[in-house]
């Protein structure tokens, strides 16, 4: 119904070098194909890499790296297609435009069959009493503002309440130039385990969801005061937990930190700003690989890629 779910090309084949005309035509085709385009390049050196390498959505170095991409494109082809199309377009947009594009794509997928299937397969959310504690702690000391995600019992799952309080804190920083340092951290064992799954699908319709993201968006505020923001990461940094953090000017992480983008498996794309913030740190291809594969990377890999700026010796308590 939707055509091929993936285009896979082996760049290390023994075929002769293509002509300039063929390369130009292939570049144009890769930019407009609706499905994810994946290059398999097993060569140990990139010195012989084809000029086409940078035009694929993903480049993998082995069959082992390829396998989770194939699984994702077969399981949720609509979300995979939407992801790579969004990343291609966002590369040409500024941060504000990119966030709008991401929200529109995310909202579309929320009404799609893949997210519907994921949602219907989830057990009903258990009733629980909201914590009387504020979901974000705000502390001002002179020119320094500290914001602490404060749902440790849920590994700081990113809820609507947490979003709204975080927006208020960041709005204060964005509007007050006397605040010269903003520190964002998480209480408990994790910085942020991603969106609160109990709230997924709880908004009445996709258009309302887009309106909420357009008016209460911590990603946009983080980007506005990025040069003053330091994020201290530890434990799980999943979904929103790395998408938002990646907007900051400096990211430090404890050795136990790990990073993951699980949304495509749910029939969605990263929706907390990750299709804008993460490519600006690690590039479009590695962002697509993380999102399509859903694989977890550790702090060392994240540092090597440039997703984080520094690994701290001590964990955050």
How would you characterize this protein structure?
With 317 residues, this protein is of the alpha/beta class. Helix 3 packs antiparallel against helix 4 (95-110) and helix 6 runs parallel beside helix 8. The mean pLDDT is 91. Strand 4 and strand 5 form a beta hairpin. The chain has a domain at 134-265 and 298-312: 2-enoyl-CoA Hydratase, Chain A, domain 1 (Alpha-Beta Complex). The protein contains 13 helices and twelve strands. The strands form three sheets. The chain has a six-stranded mixed beta sheet, covered by helices on one side.
Task: Map the helices and strands.
Elements: E1 7-10, H1 20-32, E2 37-40, E3 58-60, H2 63-75, H3 77-90, H4 95-110, H5 113-121, E4 136-141, E5 144-149, H6 160-175, E6 181-186, H7 206-215, H8 218-224, E7 229-233, E8 236-238, H9 240-243, E9 250-254, E10 258-260, H10 274-277, H11 279-282, H12 284-293, E11 297-298, H13 299-305, E12 310-312
Question: Which fold name is given in CATH as the topology of the domain at 134-265 and 298-312?
Answer: 2-enoyl-CoA Hydratase, Chain A, domain 1
- In percent terms, what proportion of residues is strand? 15-25%
Counting DSSP H or I runs of 4 or more residues, the number of helices is: 13
Low-confidence parts: none
Pairing-aware structural class of the strands and helices?
A: alpha/beta
The N- and C-terminal alpha carbons lie at a distance of 51 Å
Number of strands: 12
The CATH C-level name of the domain at 134-265 and 298-312 is Alpha Beta
Task: Report the helical percentage.
Answer: 40-55%
CATH superfamily of the domain at 134-265 and 298-312: 2-enoyl-CoA Hydratase, Chain A, domain 1
What radius of gyration results from the CA coordinates? 20 Å
Oligomer: single chain
CATH architectural category of the domain at 134-265 and 298-312: Alpha-Beta Complex
Residue-averaged pLDDT, rounded? Answer: 91
Question: How are the strands of the biggest sheet laid out side by side?
Answer: 4-5-6-7-9-12
Which overall shape is indicated by the principal axes computed on the Cα atoms?
globular
Which series of helices and strands comes N to C?
EHEEHHHHEEHEHHEEHEEHHHEHE
Biggest pleated-sheet summary: 6 strands, mixed
